[in-house]
Amino acid sequence: MTWVYLGIAIVFEILFALGTNATQGFTKLWPSVLTLLAAAGGIYTLSHALLELDVSVGYTIWTGIGGVGTVVFGAIIFKEKITLARLLSFASIIGGAIILRVTSV
């Protein structure tokens, strides 16, 4: 269940980051409410994952994969550009997350 909680936390992290853009400085009610709920959900599910994961592993994977997901969905939803430098950065983050996962067993 630990990795399921972490996966859910990552989804909430991506929703939080994308939602923050939609709040327009927290001046839009419903995007603001959804963004705050996503933040709370992410922290809640991350806290459950950290019951068994080291914080250094769980938090790093949460922010790293959440960041990659945010960039990917930012490109899809907001038409942000994905450059070669960004692709190499994604590969580094994903590679690091995989190494953390394999070595934390």
Automatic annotation (TrEMBL):
Annotated compartments: Cell membrane
Show the InterPro entries listed in the entry. Answer: EmrE-like, Small_drug/metabolite_transptr, Small_multidrug_res
One Pfam family of this chain: Multi_Drug_Res
| One cellular component (GO) term of this entry | plasma membrane
Xref: Gene3D superfamilies:
1.10.3730.20
What's the main place this protein lives? membrane
**Protein keywords:** Cell membrane, Membrane, Transmembrane, Transmembrane helix, Transport
Q: Where are the transmembrane segments?
A: 6-22, 29-51, 57-77, 84-103
Coiled-coil spans in chain = none
User: What topology does the record note for this protein and the membrane?
Assistant: Multi-pass membrane protein
Task: State any single GO MF term.
Answer: transmembrane transporter activity
The record's similarity note reads:
Belongs to the drug/metabolite transporter (DMT) superfamily. Small multidrug resistance (SMR) (TC 2.A.7.1) family.
Its name, as the record gives it, is Molecular chaperone
Query: What species is given as this protein's source?
Result: Streptomyces showdoensis
Q: What is the lineage of its organism?
A: Bacteria, Bacillati, Actinomycetota, Actinomycetes, Kitasatosporales
